[in-house]
């Protein structure tokens, strides 16, 4: 059986890496021959989770077609978020919890998408459906992914399935998910030793919205005022990245994980800034706006932006 690669999106987070590892294990148990890989180095939070449960970081690939003919995608489906040569390989399986956009294949495939808080929640369901045992360390990694994507079950994306998965996986892993989860989330909030260029690319995704190339990045912190002291440097880095990569609008969401409030910085044309204001019903002041209660790019940022750009 020919080998396939399993991977999440570019600028991978804990869900993208953790679920790639979990799904690869799952399908291999069913007879597939796969290797989990990543489209970038793990961030601090993901590295913390990998170390906690004894995993090596998956190797990073730039292209896939030079290694395999077929791949499996987790935690994404949009081509611009995937490996650079995604058009040169066959996609055999997708497990995702995002919108489906610009995705098409020449052949039938297995595609599973559910509106839950994390892709690992879906994979947890799949283990249950197959009555397949989840190893202790893998349960810990899947738990980490759900905690990350749902901000310890506080995100509006959280569903009853996510809550059930967290309870189940925490029991298998033998951890107090609240205590461990807070420690893991805090591990990902150290921004002092990173440059603005690094920070705006750590957790960033591109979206095609009515012909516009929109970049949305997110940073989690525990001290929002301290992070905002770097506002001008962030804006400069965002302007530079936009010119270099052709982004029509760049939004940076800076989220306080302790109180679930965010502030956004936005660069782009006056027209696109007006579209942003239309999306959120708020006026930008010097490229900045407070977005209390907004923590989810998937549910609270991309949908209103999509509606505003298409309206």
Describe the structure.
The protein has 311 residues and is of the alpha/beta class. It has 2 domains: 4-187, inorganic pyrophosphatase (n-terminal core) (Alpha-Beta Complex); 196-310, Diaminopimelate Epimerase, Chain A, domain 1 (Roll). Helix content is 41%, strand content 19%. The strands form 2 sheets. The chain has a 5-stranded parallel beta sheet. A hairpin with a 4-residue loop joins strand 8 and strand 9 (261-268). Helix 1 (14-29) runs parallel beside helix 3 (119-129), helix 2 (44-52) packs antiparallel against helix 4 and helix 4 (136-150) runs antiparallel to helix 5. The termini are far apart. Its EC number is 3.6.1.1. Residues 181-309 form the DHHA2 domain. Mn(2+) 2 binds at residues 15, 75, 97, 149. Keywords: Cytoplasm, Hydrolase, Manganese, Metal-binding.
Give structural attributes.
311 residues, alpha/beta, inorganic pyrophosphatase (n-terminal core), Diaminopimelate Epimerase, Chain A, domain 1, 5-stranded parallel sheet, 5-stranded mixed sheet, 11 helices, EC 3.6.1.1, cytoplasm, Mn-dep_inorganic_PyrPase
SSE order and pairing:
Blueprint: E1 4-7, H1 14-29, E2 34-36, H2 44-52, E3 70-74, E4 90-96, E5 110-113, H3 119-129, H4 136-150, H5 160-173, H6 177-187, H7 196-202, E6 204-209, E7 212-221, H8 224-228, H9 231-245, E8 249-256, E9 261-268, H10 270-280, E10 288-292, H11 297-310
